[in-house]
Amino acid sequence: MLAEKIKALAATHAEEFIGVRRYLHANPELSYQEFATSQYVQARLQQEGIAFEVIATTGIVATIKGKNPDSRVMALRADMDALPIQEENQVPYCSTKPGVMHACGHDVHTTILLGAARILNQLKDEWAGTIKLLFQPGEEKNPGGASYMIRDGALENPTPSGIIALHVHPGLDVGKLSFRTGRVMASADEIYITIKSKGGHAAAPHLTADTILIASQLVVSLQQVISRNNNPTSPSVLSICSFKGGFTTNVIPSEVKLMGTFRAMDEAWRFKAHELIKQQTIGLVTAMGAEADVHIDVGYPTVDNDPVLTTKAWQLAEQYMGKTNVEETEMRMGAEDFGYYTQQIPGCFFRLGVRNEAKDIVHNVHTPKFDIDESAIAIGMGNMAWLAVSV
Q1: How many structural domains are present in the chain?
Q2: Which of 216, 210, 189 is nearest to 198 (CA)?
Q3: pLDDT tens per residue, range 61-108
Q4: Is the pTM of this model over 0.90?
Q5: Which of 280, 297, 314 is where one domain is finished?
Q6: Among candidates 168, 185, 196, 367, which has minimal Cα distance to 293?
Q7: Looking at 297, 313, 340, which one is the last position of a domain?
Q8: Is 140 a catalytic residue?
Q9: Lowest CB count within 10 Å: 68, 109, 212, 246, which one?
Q10: Of the residues 29, 79, 81, 371, which is catalytic?
């Protein structure tokens, strides 16, 4: 049975690919700077005899052909970039680059896709179709490496019928996977607002417009955009996360800057909300005697898992893992540029459990102590290979 052969190969190669993960973890690179990582992935693919091309500067599209390669095409995707975080783990494979860390598991994702590539290549006489492997840059930074991969033809010649990706889940025990059909992750847009007046003496606020007061009113007022306009059954959140203005105790500043994020699960509401945010800002600030500049940097779209592809992948994962080891994952307001792919072709984005409380591997992604139970690597390799040839 093919599933058993895949499991056996995943187990055989597990130790080697744990080493791959540790190498990548120790040598992280920030978004759009993954030059050494890309070279490393290319060298591994060359060793396996897997054809590839480089696109989007550091991105890679590799191709493995099985029997009757024109009969079906499926894509698998991994991201390669790290985060600007100082690692605090005391492990032999700790980051060697100050202030840069694989704190979101992209080292794991890249390793798993390389491992799946080996398994698929070794078994290519036992499955039909073509598998495209996408190693992409810049998932952590707008506009998202996925957009560049698509721009440069990653989903063309041939076009896959679907695309699958996994993501580490530190809230899910190692040995488990989780899936969800439909909307699974939110869109994410960045908001930048500047409020301006001529400034003035704190003792004479009537001679100017108080930018601090106006900005404070605006922060509260913008919440009404969500609570009074959005359908409450559709998750959406607006968070103002930076408030900068003023430099002393007795001067009303001439400028206050606000920064924040807006997230939604509905694409139509998302762009309607952009206009409401702008209208609310300009209207309130103008009414209070100041001026406002509003810029909304449109980021990643919603990740919308195709119901047919995801249901089938879910069932196949249950066959591979056992039904008790596959769960329904939660909807999250975090964002992922995998959403660009799901706008183009059917997609399935699922979660890989990496948590182990007994080993104190419990820290969340994007934190200085994030790590994984490395037994998850063989599980990820095997599942990615199994889903690629079976969905």
Answers
A1: 2
A2: 210
A3: 999 999 999 999 999 999 999 999 999 999 999 999 999 999 999 999
A4: yes
A5: 297
A6: 196
A7: 297
A8: no
A9: 68
A10: 81
